[in-house]
Specification:
The protein is mostly helical and 339 residues long. It has 14 helices and no strands.
Length: 339
């Protein structure tokens, strides 16, 4: 088991390193295509940083294909929205408060209410629909719903482009591959082809890391006698959501609150549609009690933030930090009733 734990840690490191490179490429692609902050934050950056936790369940379900891998897949699918709506909310709100106390910014979060409110509403509708689908006994109907979920995400993308914010997302870190290339001396900004190359390279590395993660998570869960679903709900998302958390902390420090929150809320919408469609089509999509509890907490936490956003017409970092209580409540539930 020791080797499996080491490989588990190594795979997480691979995923996170590749995710940072991936996100860097996604942001540059958005800049080179002259896309607005709403699209870059809620779609490009969100999909980029959501890729690790998205590939883990897809690889578990599509390429490993046994009962344990199905549990890991479903756990990772539901764990990602849960972690984003609790731990990621908490980290972002806490970062705003800490930076404000250090004099780097104010506690007022300057977010685009239209963008963030739209993301949260889409997530609540899509995710509730996905969870309700688990109670449908006929699998062909679930397959049909999977195609509906893909269509719904397409609708969300269209709406995001239609509501695209006009403000700029600000300066970006240099494209990693361009910065270390001889072309950097002659041209400060990279070519789109270089950004796309970095995009696909990082994606390939993420796939390799996810494949290693899935196989070794199965080994560790079996040796510890802990259900694979529990580990997948808590460990996989907590590790692979780090790109969203890290990026959001950087962005709130720079005052780019719409990008910071759009990165999280956009990833939540993506996770409620694309991975769920895979789960609906290729697994029985029968949810256990821990899975349903995590889903309920994600819905309640997001609803709480959305109500505050609508009432105040701005986002309070103190409301975001209360999402940490939802995360702790689920951990306590797992420790008391499931382990």
């Amino acid at each position: 088991m020791a080797l499996a734990i080491v490989l588990l840690i190594v795979s997480i490191a691979i995923i996170l390193a590749a995710a940072e490179i991936f996100t860097n490429a996604v942001e540059w692609i958005g800049k080179l295509l002259n896309l607005g902050e709403g699209v870059v934050g809620s779609i490009l950056a969100a999909v980029g940083t959501a890729m690790p936790e998205t590939l883990i369940p897809m690889i578990a379900i599509l390429f490993v294909g046994n009962e344990s891998s199905d549990e890991i897949g479903i756990g990772a699918i539901l764990g990602a929205p849960f972690m984003l709506s609790t731990a990621a909310f908490f980290v972002t709100g806490a970062a705003v408060i800490i930076f404000a106390r250090r004099g780097r910014r104010t506690t007022e979060m300057r977010v685009n209410v239209t963008i963030l409110g739209r993301d949260m509403r889409f997530f609540l509708i899509f995710y509730t629909f996905a969870i309700a689908s688990a109670f449908i006994p006929v699998h062909p109907v679930k397959i049909a719903i999977a195609f509906v979920m893909l269509g719904l995400y397409g609708l969300y993308v269209v709406r995001t482009f239609a509501d695209e914010a006009t403000e700029s997302g600000g300066d970006l870190n240099p494209l990693h591959f361009h910065r270390h290339s001889p072309f950097h001396r002659h041209k400060p900004d990279p070519h789109l082809a270089m950004a796309l190359f970095q995009f696909f390279f990082a994606l390939a590395v993420i796939i390799i890391g996810a494949r290693i993660f899935v196989s070794n998570l199965e080994t560790v869960s079996h040796d510890l006698g802990v259900p694979a679903l529990i580990l997948a709900l808590l460990i996989a998302p907590l590790a692979t959501e780090l790109p969203e958390k890290f990026n959001s902390v950087i962005w709130v420090r720079q005052g780019k609150d719409t990008l910071a929150m759009g990165n999280i809320s956009g990833a939540m919408v993506f996770q409620s549609c694309i991975p769920v469609a895979v789960g609906l089509a290729f697994t029985p999509w029968e949810l256990t009690t821990p899975a349903l509890v995590s889903a309920a907490i994600a819905i309640v936490s997001t609803t709480w933030a959305l109500i505050s956003l609508k009432r105040r017409h701005y986002l309070s970092p103190y409301i975001l930090t209360t999402a940490g209580l939802f995360y702790l409540a689920f951990v306590l539930y797992v420790v008391v009733f499931e382990v």
